[in-house]
Amino acid sequence: MLESIQQSPFFQWASVIAVFCGVVGFLYLLRDRYFPSNNKAVNRYRKKLERSKASNKKLNKLLDDSKQLIQSVEHILETLTFAAHGDSNMASALRRARVALARGDVEPLKFLGSRQLKRQISNRADAAMLARRYLELSHLEAAQGNFDLAIDNANKASELAPDNPSIWFQLGKLYLRTEQNPDAKRALSRGISLTNNGNAVEPIDLSKAYFRLGTVQRNLGELDQAIKCFKKTLAISTDQGDKDLMAAAYGGIGGIHDSRGQLDQAMVYFKKALVISTDQVDKGNIAEMHRSISLVHYAQGEMDDAQSFSEKALALYTELGNMRGMASASCSLGEMHRAQGEMDDAQSFSETLALYEKLENKMGMATSHRHIGNLMKNTGNTDKAISSWQKAADLYHQLDSPKEMQLRDLINRCKQL
Question: How far apart are CA 213 and CA 192, in angstroms?
Fold first, then answer.
């Protein structure tokens, strides 16, 4: 019986399979015993494969989120378009835009720093589109007075489209508005250089950029460069027939001559600006030119003319509700009255101080306290004069102004009398 089983084909095949399995098993033992490096290589390969799968999964998630972000920003465009066509509640439009950008709990900067995403969008129009949306949001934030957010959004736009001059012009405008002159100079110069390299913009936008760069350079004391920019503004605006910009350019050039003590030349340019501003019925420019002309008359000792132009400037600023202009004109008037010994009229310094306090303008507040101190000293009230000068000196200290030490010396001299 046993012999018949052993001689059966089934048994013979089973024996062959058993021997084969034993040999294979023995070979695996030999591999693990004598060739462990091969096993490690397989494990390393498997780990790399797992990491690759994980990376692909993250990249797919990244791209899905980027598509969601782009859809959200597309919704911003709809919001902005709606706002531009008669939505009077701009704050509501801004809230909807912010919600749209944050929709899906998507944080834009998380993706904008990703090299994979930048490579993905660099081959499509997505980067330019996204930059335009951030630029539009920057304009909307600025219109609401949210300048930090406006600058943040413009910077995001510049990262996505660094060759777009309009983005750098917006950044320069915002930095100038927030008195960050070095940053404004950098941004405006970058935008202008891009236009010189073939990136086209509207001539009026380029003219405005030159004017703002000239203003920045004047603020930084770079008067030669500033006057060149104002002249470029004048040339472009004249060619385009934009009298508002022509008037601004004439005023800027006049201001440079005024800073250099070239009062006759300054007056020529200020009056040219005033004629053009009047022709355009631009009350803002008219007020500014009246104020500038009044200061030239004051510097030349022509008090009646200086006072007349200052009063006109103040009336126009008041009509426009321009508190900064009202404060400046009121301060000039007060100083003119004080210089002529009209102490009652010089009390306008207190009104000027109140305006500057509302504006939170520390330099204006310091100037007003200094003028009030001078007024008190002229009327023989030394204690009140010292008190006002002290407040002015403290403000100048916060502004790191050299006028602080001048006032401190004046205070010490008065105390010794």
Answer: 9
